[in-house]
Amino acid sequence: MDRFAVIGLGLFGRRLAHLLTEAGADVIAIDRRQDVVDEIRDRVSLAVCLDSTNADALRAQGVDAVDVAIVGIGTDFESAVLTAVLLKQLGVKRVICRATSQVRSQIFMRIGADEVINPEREAAERWRNRLLVPAVLERSVLAEGTSLVHVAAPRRFVGKTLGELQIRRKFEINVVAIRRTVEHVDEDGVPQTRQEAISVPTADTCIEAGDVLLLIGADDALAAFPVD
After folding, report:
1. Which InterPro entries match (predicted)?
2. What are the structural domains of the chain?
3. Which of 35, 70, 126, 201 has the most CB atoms less than 10 A away?
C-alpha cells in the first residue's frame, strides 16, 4: 500500500489521515500547530509539528519518500502553494491539493499539482444528487458527464430478465453488476443475510426484489432512469 503524507490538519486533513490509517496505510500527519499534532498522534503512523514550507524539515521526516502527499492547508494559501512546489521539487510522485475556489484550483494545477480536490463542492454535489434523485444510493463520477451509480431496482423490473428489460437499448445505460441480499442459515441455525454480487450479469439474469443495480451512463440518461 502507498505511503501518504497529509499536510494541514484541519477538519479535512485530520479526517483523511485517520481514515487512511484505519485502512492500513502508513501516514505522516503534519501541521505547524503543536496542539493539533498532539491530538492526532495516537491515530496515525507519525505526527509531526513542522513548517511545511521548509524543504529540509520535510526531507528530515521522510516526506520526500512518500508516494502521495495531500496538501490540506486551508487558511494560508501562500503556504499551501509553496508546500506543493517543494513537494514536487523533492520528487514526491503524486501531489494532491485541496482548493476552496476555482481560481485556486487553476493555480495549483499550473504549479504542478497532480490533482486538485474541493471537498466542500464535492460534498454539495453528492447531496444535490441524493436530494434530486433519491433512488440513487451512491454515485461515482467517471468523467465529465458520465457516472457510475447504485440504484435500487425499480419494482416494475422485478421478475424480469435483463434481456426482457432491454435497458441498454431503451435508456442508453449499461448494467455492469447487481448487488443482491441473500438470506441463509448459519451453522447454529440462526437466519442471516449476506451481500452477493453478480459481477457479469447476462441477458438471462433475472431481477429480484431488493436488488441494487450498478449502472454506467451519461448523467442525463441516468437522471431519466425509472425509479419505481
Report:
1. NAD(P)-bd_dom_sf (IPR036291), RCK_C (IPR006037), RCK_C_sf (IPR036721), RCK_N (IPR003148), Trk_Ktr_HKT_K-transport (IPR050721)
2. 3-117 (3.40.50.720), 123-223 (3.30.70.1450)
3. 70
